[in-house]
Amino acid sequence: MMADVQPAPQRPVRKRRRRTIACSQCRSRKLKCDREYPTCGRCQKGKAPAKCSYEDGFLWQQPSTLNASSMPERVGGSAATAVAAAGATTQLHRVDRSVAHPTPDSGISKSSSRPQLTDSTITCPVAEKRDRFLETVLGAPKAAVNQDFMNGPELLHRPRQHTATNQESHTNSVQDDVPPVSPSQLLDLSPRIMMRGRDTKTRFNGSGILANLIAQFPDLRAFAEEIRLSSPHLSALRPDLMRVSRGLWKAQPLSVPVPDTDTASLIALLPSRQVVDELVILFLTHVESTHRILHIPSFLRDLEEFWVHKSTPHLVLPAFVAQLLLVLACAWNLADLTALELKNGSSLRCYTAIEWIMYAEKWIENAHIKRSDITVLRLHILLIIAQNSLGMKRSKAWLSTATLVKTAMLAGYHRDPNLYSKISPFNKEMRRRIWTTIVELDLQVSFERGMPPSLQESDYDTAPPLNVNDADLQEAAEELPQERPLEEFTDCSFQVVLTQTLHLRLRACTLMHSPRIRCRYDEILRLDWELNRHLSKIPNWKSAEQGSIQMGDKVILTRAMLQNKIGLSLLSIHTPFAIEASREPLFTPSARARLELVTMILSTQRRLYERSGPLSLCNLGDWTVQAYCSVCQLLHEVAASHGVNSISLLHTLPGLPESLISLVEVALTCLETRLRQVIKGAKEYFFMSTILALVKTKLWPTQATAYKQEVVERVILFAQTLFSQHANCSHLGGLGMGNFKTNQVCRASFTSTLLYGYVSDIKS
Fold first, then answer.
1. What b/e string do you get for 31-70 counting C-beta neighbours within 10 Å, with b at 16 or more?
2. Is the separation of the CB atoms in 143 and 196 below 8 Å?
3. Are 575 and 213 in contact (CB under 8 A)?
4. What is the pTM of this model?
5. Chain segment 467-522, per-residue pLDDT in tens
């Protein structure tokens, strides 16, 4: 009998060792690590970022999209083994030398030592996995100023070149002698963006100029913190400054519901005829000259008829009254409130123009017009311009202009009216003017928000308007008047000249606000040449020859706005490359072009500021803010590099930094005047004041204390002036002027309270 076979003893199951998901420093301190390579985010914020290290198996945790040859030497020879163990299915290809690739995501790379990923080493499905990994592991980007990874020094990364030494073994060797990027190489850039919020509730600002610039001030937060900590007092003015930053019109009238309106209620909102006449003149001089909306003789004739029938509302068209209210609201900030009150015979509330806009908007909503005619389009255009002039609904402006474009297309305004025989010559010309105004409004808002425009040149074939005066265009005429030469200034000169560059500016906006900028630098230079050619061909109309002050102001404003519109497009295409010019010599032309553009924009602003207040306010726009921040970023970079690898003029031409700073300070004064008149804008003013002080501190460190105190005085004076303007207004509520009602608050307490809330805004 055979002996029972004893079963072999079972070996104890060895549990697999859990892979480490943190660097050595975070693991020892039992802290959550974001696994950023080669240095995690927590260690970068610490005192010893060089101590951040990972164990040899760290690559095992990385996604299978990483190519072993693209990892730094720090990982050692285990990179290829680790990637294979993770089941990597990446297919290696030879790198195309004609393509220059950027960082994997928008500004995520912190230094050139970080692994450089190229699309040439990744198949298409794997590239999508890589993007999702960066979003889920590194976290969705918030505001660019709050994100450390948005402050990366490089936007364009040139890939290392891999040469196959043995096709059978498919092994690659890295060549260190990388040739420089040429203008004919294909650029593939992921532009920086700005996003606030979290999860599904976010607000997106695209890859505009500001998103690229703010990321270049990594020390701004620390500088603002120094100002806050310079004084121990934190209680005196903080509540009042928070009220200013959030807007003083929250309780009234913005939160008060607007009742249903009719013709009588709209007429009751109008001031005296003297006030209406003055505001209408300001509108026709400063707004209508650059936004062709009305036919001036027809509008003035309808206005005269309105005064005749004012006492009998049933004889007045409510659409005209709503249009008149919006016209007055567009010009409200251009007038002197004290002078208007004298002409009105009674006091005017500070939010009178806001009520005009809200009541007119309510009437438009309740009108329920099924088929939009030119009057409806005019109302929507005036509503957008009026809201923008008072800082209302800025976050919805891109939606409003896009809807307006679609509404006009549904009415056929995007097709040239010569295709239809049932349209009179007068209405054909008015349709062309309205369509051009709508497209320009949408393009301008797209530049401001960093978003693509709602249409392209191929989406319409409407001819540009004629260069004629409104007096030459008669409603009953059977033929259109003879067009005048561009050298002769007319009521439509602005539209006619600007329309010549519309296709170029649409192309620039679409290219620079795309998720990825795929073009050759030669194309950027070509676009620059075409825009500059039109910029140099702007007619030199003589304002002194026009006869009246109003006509002279129209000529000056028209020429300035033409330069600003074209200059903004040039700034848009050059800013991302100009920022990288100190590290990539290929982009030096963009750096030089940007310096010329910002100097032109800010010099024009100063010239109009010295001429008149209304001209200065009308000339302000997104281009002014972009030029302001561009100069600050340029001087900040020069100060940080001490003249090394910077634009030669800034450190070789004596007095140029001082001249640029003086232009920036004048622009800040102009912006301060405007921001006192809008619903919200204090945060923007606080922010820009701090950037200017930071740059001046970098340029002249010995006066750093004075510049920090200058920020305090600017912000406190801004808030105190704003409260003083509304001291007798009921919308301030029970708090009234708060701590500003007395002069007993010492300046030392101002310093700490000054930016307590606004530094928190930078962090949040």
1. eebbbbbbbbbbbeeeeeeeebebeeebbeebebbbbbbb
2. yes
3. yes
4. 0.76
5. 999 999 998 888 999 999 999 999 999 999 999 999 999 999 999 998 888 889 99
